[in-house]
């Protein structure tokens, strides 16, 4: 019984040390995830994070311009990030607003992609803005540092949180169990 109690105390001390240092290291990642997550939560309220959607001219769904016309309009703007068709990430039709949302590719991991809104009836440019939410999403998932870093950091963060939870429960409940066990089985 004495050996078992000594081994349990030794494991508890080891767990406290690992729990403490894991928590200290993990707090940096948790702060980054928390701050970036806060920005993402407010993306529809801040123009920098998500440009406000404009509405196009009144018209019937049968009178909207084609996606190929939208591509021509985008390329005619001669934006540095829209020099060729492959620079266009996606084109979305918003029929209720009679508007196309066009998203361009970001120049690099640390920049925000541009969003252009085109009137689906007239072809007029309604809004040109940055999608800062994508940059904050990439920071949130650590994708700005590359795919390997994203997968490694997010996996290690998840495993560390699991470890902290398990050792936290152990460190909290073990002394309670130990005292109760000692009262029931005095030596």
Key attributes of the depicted protein:
single chain; 187 residues; Nuclear Transport Factor 2, Chain: A; 2 domains; PepSY domain-containing protein; membrane; transmembrane helix
Q: What's a quick, concise take on this entry?
A:
This protein is α+β, with helices and mostly antiparallel strands and 187 residues long. It is 52% helix and 13% strand.
What features would you describe in this structure?
The chain crosses the membrane at residues 21-42, 151-173. The chain has 187 residues and is α+β, with helices and mostly antiparallel strands. It folds into two domains: 2-40 and 143-184; 51-129, Nuclear Transport Factor 2, Chain: A (Roll), CATH 3.10.450. Helices cover 52% and strands 13% of the residues. The chain has four helices and four strands. The protein has helices at residues 2-41, 67-76, 132-140, 147-184, and strands at 88-94, 99-104, 114-119, 125-130. Helix 1 packs across helix 4 (147-184). The chain is elongated and about 90 Å long.
């Amino acid at each position: 019984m004495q050996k078992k109690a000594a081994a349990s105390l030794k494991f508890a001390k080891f767990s406290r040390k690992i729990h403490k240092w894991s928590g200290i290291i993990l707090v940096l990642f948790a702060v980054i995830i928390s701050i970036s997550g806060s920005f993402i939560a407010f993306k529809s309220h801040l123009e920098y994070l998500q440009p406000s959607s404009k509405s196009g001219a009144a018209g019937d769904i049968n009178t909207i311009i084609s996606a190929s016309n939208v591509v021509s309009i985008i390329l005619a703007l001669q934006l540095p990030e829209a020099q060729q068709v492959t620079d266009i990430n996606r084109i979305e039709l918003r029929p209720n607003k009679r508007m196309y949302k066009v998203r361009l590719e970001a120049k690099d991991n640390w920049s925000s992609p541009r969003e252009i809104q085109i009137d689906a009836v007239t072809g007029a440019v309604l809004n040109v803005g940055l999608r800062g939410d994508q940059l904050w999403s990439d920071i949130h998932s650590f994708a700005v540092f590359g795919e390997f870093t994203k997968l490694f950091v997010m996996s290690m963060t998840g495993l560390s949180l699991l470890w902290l939870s398990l050792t936290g429960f152990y460190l909290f409940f073990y002394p309670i169990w130990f005292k109760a066990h000692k009262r029931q089985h005095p030596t």
